[in-house]
Structures are given as structure tokens and as C-alpha cells.
């Protein structure tokens, strides 16, 4: 029953999740650090890497969306593990054969 409750909490957390995007944000400078910082959001689309410049105002919003994406991946991984454990504990499988005696 504990596993079911944990699964339900994770499901609820997923339902309350805000915007999400994958990728990373990098702080950059131009001309030996004299100009900047400016920020770039980098992410993959298929096999290609995309880079988009962000304003200072966009950085915290995109950072939060990246954290949400990472948390969703963690939640799904844990939900899959719990699902496997719950299914193994609550369903009847094929009877296993006894090992052969030599």
C-alpha cells in the first residue's frame, strides 16, 4: 500500500508541474569578459543542436522550465520502477519450473 501512495503522490506532482523545456543555459561574455554577460539556451531537436539567445528576464523563467523538465524525468523513472514492483506483487505470473536434478 505504501508503494501505491507514493505512486499517487508522484502522479499528483506531475499534474501540478508547470512549463517545461529541455536544455541548458550558458552565461557568455564577449571581448575578454568586457561585454556581457549574455545568455544562451541550448537544446537538441532530433540530432541537431539549437541555440537561442535569452534576455536577462527570460533566464529565470527558462531555468525553472528546465528544472521542471528534469524533475518530470525523475518522476517518470520512479513511477516506472514502482509500477513494476506493484505489478509483480499484485499479479499472478506463470509458475516457474523446478530446476532439473542432475
Kindly describe this structure.
This protein has helices spanning 2-15, 58-90, and strands spanning 24-30, 35-45, 48-54. It is an alpha+beta fold and 102 residues long. The protein has one domain. Strands 1-2-3 form a three-stranded antiparallel sheet, covered by helices on one side. β2 and β3 form a beta hairpin. The radius of gyration is 23 Å and the shape is elongated.
Indicate the topology.
Blueprint lengths: L1 H14 L8 E7 L4 E11 L2 E7 L3 H33 L12
Antiparallel strand pairs: 1-2, 2-3
Helix pairs in contact: 1-2
Brief overview, please?
With 102 residues, the chain is α+β, with helices and mostly antiparallel strands.
Key terms for this structure?
single chain; 102 residues; alpha+beta; 3-stranded antiparallel β-sheet; elongated
What order do the helices and strands follow?
Answer: HEEEH
SS class: alpha+beta
Bin the helical content.
40-55%
- Strand share of the residues? 15-25%
- Overall mean pLDDT stands at 93
User: What characterizes the major β-sheet?
Assistant: 3 strands, antiparallel
The number of helical segments is: 2
Shape: elongated
Structural domains: how many: 1
| Rg | 23 Å
Which regions contain 5 or more consecutive residues with pLDDT less than 50? none
